[in-house]
């Protein structure tokens, strides 16, 4: 028994980090938003980001989804969308500014 007690630790003695390793969190599709771009489904779990993406027109949303969620380079996006790479870069940066304004506006509400 003494040997067993030396190996055992009570839950109250565990740190939050150690407890997190022992726990499981369920995610449900009701909590996610699915966007489709170039025959790929992109799942967004964050409600505020999903709302910001929904407010974008389709062509702008596609650039953001391809760049940040599917990790495509500007050149790859340009090839897929039949655009010039510099146009994709310009639009991506301007869309990010637009998203930032939207997110800051939502935060102040």
- String of helices and strands: HHEEHHHH
The helix content is 55-70%
Unreliable sequence segments: none
The total count of strands amounts to: 2
Count of DSSP helices?
6
Main β-sheet: number of strands, strand sense, barrel status?
Answer: 2 strands, antiparallel
Structural class, from helix and strand content? mainly alpha
Q: How far from one another are the termini?
A: 59 Å
- The averaged pLDDT comes out at 88
Please compute the radius of gyration using only Cα atoms: 22 Å
Instruction: Please state the overall shape, judged from the principal axes of the Cα atoms.
Output: elongated
Descriptive notes:
There is one protein chain. With 109 residues, the chain is mainly α. 60% of the residues lie in helices and 9% in strands. It has helices at 2-7, 16-22, 47-54, 58-69, 74-81, 85-108, and strands at 33-37, 40-44. The chain has a two-stranded antiparallel sheet. The longest helix has 24 residues, at 85-108.
What topology emerges from the helices and strands here?
Elements: H1 2-7, H2 16-22, E1 33-37, E2 40-44, H3 47-54, H4 58-69, H5 74-81, H6 85-108
Antiparallel strand pairs: 1-2
Helix pairs in contact: 3-6, 4-6, 5-6
């Amino acid at each position: 028994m003494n040997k067993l007690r030396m190996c055992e630790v009570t839950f109250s003695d565990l740190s939050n980090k150690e407890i997190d390793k022992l726990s499981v969190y369920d995610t449900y599709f009701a909590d996610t938003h699915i966007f489709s771009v170039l025959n790929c489904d992109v799942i967004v779990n964050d409600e505020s980001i999903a709302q910001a993406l929904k407010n974008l027109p389709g062509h702008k949303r596609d650039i953001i989804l391809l760049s940040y969620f599917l990790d495509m380079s500007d050149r790859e996006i340009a090839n897929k969308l039949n655009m010039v790479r510099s146009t994709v870069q310009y639009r991506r940066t301007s869309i990010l500014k637009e998203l930032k304004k939207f997110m800051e506006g939502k935060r102040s509400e």
